[in-house]
C-alpha cells in the first residue's frame, strides 16, 4: 500500500463537476483507493462517499492506494487534487 499526503487546490477552478470527475479518475484503476482526513476515511470510487468527504481548498488529505496499479493510481489522484 502506498500513501501520500497532499493539500487540495481549488477544484472548482479547474473542474466543472469535481466530485464526479474525482470518482471517474479513481475508477480507472483496479487498486483500492482511499481518501483520509480528520479521522474520516472513504472509498474514492464511491460518489456518495466523496460527496460526504467534500474535498475543499487547502484541506490536508492522505491518498491511499493498494493494488497492482497503486503507483499510477496515487499519481493520478494527486495530480487531480493538487492541480
Automatic annotation (TrEMBL):
One of the GO biological process terms: phosphoenolpyruvate-dependent sugar phosphotransferase system
Cellular component terms (Gene Ontology): cytoplasm
Name assigned to this protein: HPr family phosphocarrier protein
Keywords in alphabetical order: Cytoplasm, Phosphotransferase system
Places the protein is found: Cytoplasm
Ranges of residues in domain HPr: 1-83
Domain of life of the organism encoding this protein: Bacteria
Primary location group: cytoplasm
Amino acid at each position: 500500500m502506498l500513501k501520500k499526503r497532499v493539500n487540495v487546490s481549488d477544484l472548482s477552478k479547474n473542474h466543472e463537476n469535481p466530485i464526479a470527475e474525482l470518482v471517474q479518475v479513481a475508477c480507472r484503476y483496479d487498486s483500492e483507493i482511499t481518501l483520509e482526513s480528520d479521522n474520516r476515511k472513504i472509498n474514492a470510487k464511491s460518489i456518495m462517499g466523496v460527496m460526504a468527504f467534500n474535498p475543499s481548498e487547502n484541506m490536508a488529505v492522505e491518498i491511499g492506494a493498494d493494488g497492482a496499479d497503486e503507483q499510477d493510481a496515487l499519481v493520478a489522484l494527486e495530480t487531480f487534487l493538487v492541480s
